[in-house]
Amino acid sequence: MVNELLVPGAMLHLLVGLVLATLVHQDASLRGSDRAAELGVATLAVGLVFAVGYYLRCERIGDLPPDAGRRRASLVDRGWDLLRGLLLIVAAFLAATAVVGLGMSALVGAGVIVRDTLEYRVVASVFQFVGFGLAVGGYLAITREWELLQVRRPSVREVGLIAVGVLALVGAQLVIARLLTALSVDVAQNQVVVTGQRDPSYFLYMIPVAILLVGPFEELVFRGGVQGILRRTWGPSVAIALSSVLFGLVHWIALTGGGGSRLPYVTVAAVLGLVLGYLYERTRNLVVPAVVHGLYNTVLFGVQYLSATGMG
């Protein structure tokens, strides 16, 4: 019973740390403190310390498969795997930057597409996630760690989990959004939303991109890659927590607004990452979180389109 409670306990502590970080950062920003960022980061660490503390105290967290028989890794091994996970994220963004730069330059030079148009932004998004895929593919080819790529046709049970996962993400998004509104917390906007508000048809273009590219390739990086690497030495629950925090943090660069308004968005993304990470750990099938992620984004784009066109 104790072990069963450790998983939600660790995640709850992490969530508390994220929420406290958001509130402290926002409050400090409103009061004009020049140490708002430091206060937010320090409070954020509370949840992470509790999650890792559970792991170090009990050696393993929960009964997420396969857990039995896993060796207790040294701190050096854990640190090395954490570094590898971070480097994979960096490689993904570097590859995305290279593919977008080279690909878009070639298309513009050939007269296929014009800069600063809707089509340009959509194609750039496509190239970005192709870059993600190339980075992970390169990592797997070099390391031969093909076991990280857990992909198969979803079972009936997994299809049910996909439906539950989408509802859980949408529900969590609504609850957290209402909570932040009630607390008068200013939340930054994603650049995709800003672009779509200027031209609502952009949201419609992004729906197939979300299903075919955003969901699969972001999950390939953060669940298949980062979470898969970390779970070998940190264990499944800490791997879920760490990869979710990293998943939230990388959204920082896609936002508009000041640091005080970006942190709440990052917090929400990290919380949603916990759900995706848990789904992947339970099913060991990357298709499940990828489809959930893509459909969740589709719902958001659909709602944004209806709102921007005055239909919702």
How would you describe this protein?
- The protein is an all-alpha fold and 312 residues long.
- The chain has one domain.
- It is globular.
- The chain has helices at 2-30, 36-58, 75-109, 118-143, 156-182, 191-198, 201-234, 236-250, 259-283, 287-308, and strands at residues 189-190, 255-256.
- The termini are far apart.
- The protein has a two-stranded antiparallel sheet.
- The longest helix is centred in the N-terminal third of the chain and has 35 residues, at 75-109.
What global shape is seen?
globular
Structural class: mainly alpha
**How many strand segments?**
2
What does the radius of gyration come to?
Answer: 20 Å
Strand content: under 5%
Report, as a whole number of angstroms, the end-to-end distance. Answer: 46 Å
The percent of residues in helical segments reads over 70%
Order of helices and strands: HHHHHEHHHEHH
How many helices does DSSP assign? Answer: 10
Largest sheet: 2 strands, antiparallel
Mean pLDDT: 80
Total number of distinct structural domains: 1
Strand order of the largest sheet: 1-2
Low-pLDDT residue spans: 1-5, 30-36, 59-69
Give a quick rundown of the structure.
This protein has 312 residues and is mainly alpha-helical.
Topology, element by element:
Layout lengths: L1 H29 L5 H23 L16 H35 L8 H26 L12 H27 L6 E2 H8 L2 H34 L1 H15 L4 E2 L2 H25 L3 H22 L4
Antiparallel strand pairs: 1-2
Helix pairs in contact: 1-2, 1-9, 2-8, 3-4, 3-7, 4-7, 5-9, 5-10, 6-10, 7-8, 7-10, 8-9, 9-10
Enzyme class: hydrolase
EC number: 3.4.-.-
Protein name: CPBP family intramembrane glutamic endopeptidase
